[in-house]
């Protein structure tokens, strides 16, 4: 199992943070589409921390066109010498329509077609296949030599999909090269809903889990001192309260008997009571959605909870922490959870 660390910094700090992640022992760095572009920091990471796997986790798909995404992925795959993984997600309707100002309809079908369109573009460039993709949402039928970058020396970039609901998870299993399991997860939800939906999609695509990269994000709360731990817990509580307020994220809460809290958090979000939302997150909520404790307990908890499920584990610790905490944790988890990366070619 590979372990990825968060590259969630301003563009001016991306190179230094990427080097630090590599020094700490991370196998990869992932970006989020938050208040900055998810691609630019990875370009700097490829230059200043060569060999580190680079993942957009996620880039929002629908405001972008398959051709734009294909060129970006091709360039990053080339510049990183084969270490780029394109992670795409749909986002929720409100953000697509009100923040990005684009259309949101039939997201699972649209995402399926977007990925198939990108793969058709990749086959055109890499294998010399004629570009003739005609779909409901996207049409790509023109590729002249001047716009064709040609074969990629490092292979086609893998396309991973962020998925939470059953339909999107099935699509990930059917057509993508991997799934990015959202950090707002718990084991009952992953085992009883995510993985069965993934297997249904894999069956539709005539594949098995061995053909897929399974990346799972783990929220971790820890700190060297009581003060550091409390600051970490507060930060994660606020984040969980924010996630829990989103109607689309209700299923993971229902899986652990917390569905009733989703409506309460949603009302508080509409009232702008952000701090109060985090205060509604109690120990039961934390135990379901996070791994928490003193640094020396974290590795064993991660191993016990996740061993045998993901091929990649993303450490999600959205707070300032002492960098010396992490190398020992990473080393122990990787030693105990060895598993090969899928070798199936992006087709």
Residues in helices, as a percent range: 40-55%
Beta content comes to: 5-15%
- The number of helical runs is 14
CATH architecture: Alpha-Beta Barrel
- DSSP, total strands: 12
CATH class: Alpha Beta
Principal-axis shape equals: globular
Characterize the main sheet: 8 strands, parallel, barrel
User: If you compute it from the alpha carbons, what radius of gyration comes out, rounded to the nearest whole angstrom?
Assistant: 20 Å
Mean pLDDT across all residues, rounded? Answer: 95
Uncertain parts:
340-345
Under CATH, the homologous superfamily reads Luciferase-like domain
CATH fold-level topology: TIM Barrel
Strand order of the largest sheet: 1-2-3-5-8-9-10-12
Secondary-structure-based class equals alpha/beta
Pattern of helices and strands: EHEHEEHEHHEEEHEHEHHHHHEHEH
List the helices and strands and how they pair.
Blueprint: E1 2-6, H1 14-24, E2 28-31, H2 40-48, E3 53-56, E4 59-60, H3 66-79, E5 84-89, H4 93-99, H5 107-127, E6 133-134, E7 139-140, E8 159-163, H6 166-175, E9 178-181, H7 187-204, E10 213-221, H8 226-244, H9 250-254, H10 259-270, H11 274-279, H12 283-289, E11 290-292, H13 295-306, E12 312-316, H14 326-336
Helix pairs in contact: 1-2, 3-5, 5-6, 6-7, 13-14
Structural features, described:
The chain is α/β, with parallel strands linked by helices and 347 residues long. It has one domain: Alpha-Beta Barrel (TIM Barrel), CATH 3.20.20.30. The chain has helices at residues 14-24, 40-48, 66-79, 93-99, 107-127, 166-175, 187-204, 226-244, 250-254, 259-270, 274-279, 283-289, 295-306, 326-336; strands at residues 2-6, 28-31, 53-56, 59-60, 84-89, 133-134, 139-140, 159-163, 178-181, 213-221, 290-292, 312-316. Helix 3 (66-79) packs across helix 5 (107-127). The longest helix is centred in the middle third of the chain and has 21 residues, at 107-127. The chain starts with a strand and ends in an 11-residue tail after the last helix.
